[in-house]
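Fold this complex.
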Amino acid sequence: MTVTTGSPLRILLLGGTTEATALATHLARVDGVQATLSLAGRTANPAASAFSVRIGGFGGVEGLANHLQREKIDLLVDATHPFAARISANAIAASIETGVPLLAVERPPWTQVDGDDWIEHDGIEAAISALPHKPQDVFSGLGRQAIDALRRAPHHRYLIRVVDPIELPANLAHAKIITARGPFHTEDDIKIFTEHRIRYVLAKNAGGSAAYSKIEAARKLGITVHMVRRPALGPRPTVATSDEALNWIEALHRTRSDLGV
Ligand SMILES: NC(=O)c1ccc[n+]([C@@H]2O[C@H](COP(=O)([O-])OP(=O)(O)OC[C@H]3O[C@@H](n4cnc5c(N)ncnc54)[C@H](OP(=O)(O)O)[C@@H]3O)[C@@H](O)[C@H]2O)c1
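Structure:
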């Protein structure tokens, strides 16, 4: 899109998701838009990019608010993972504090379909505590940040999928790690669950397609899923996809141009 405007539309895009990377890639081609993708720096090799990237926390709400003002940001886009609740809450607070408008990109959560056997929980700890008392073969799709919580029920034989290699705590002696980066595929997950005789899957309701394979594989094999519901956030303008976000941003850009901003 080509829009002639007085000053560029400066966007800070909070990322760490496929949606954020896709949006940053599209925005890099829009004339008059300067977008910077912000990453927390959790993964060792974030996907390569053709746009401006900054890495690391801002230092809470104050740090983010200062950054928005210092960098003269016109729009804050929160395209972080639905379970990245702290940065999303900080984004709401910093937007209110500075008056910089906020747009969230949030994929819809998964919903149960015929054949699913889900038990839903508020929080990772509740999901882990709901596993049977006797040792079980359990697949954890909860990510690396849940490792500490798994230590509460160390008697299960966990198969833990993470992006980067990690060292397991001593009391998770029965656990095995698989390192892999999505998107994952249902047939592969069926094979993994069968080989490891998985009886339970621990999952966060991330939504989207990249991590859905474990849910589909569990359905096909009749495995129970302990599903962690999303953390609740305050109200904010939200779109569901990177395409919708791009349309929203282009409309804002056109309006600014019409107003001569
Ligand atoms: N949680 C998940 O399940 C999950 C899954 C896949 C990807 N991710 C991605 O991994 C990142 C970290 O997730 P989390 O659950 O640890 O987040 P979090 O608990 O909400 O955030 C913790 C702190 O990390 C910093 N941070 C988080 N996202 C950032 C970003 N995009 N840019 C700069 N700083 C950021 C902020 O530090 P300051 O307060 O110092 O600013 C924030 O307070 C997020 O960007 C998220 O999109 C998370």
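The pocket of NAP is lined by residues 14-17, 38-40, 42, 57-60, 63-64, 80-81, 83-87, 90, 143, 204 (CB under 6 Å).
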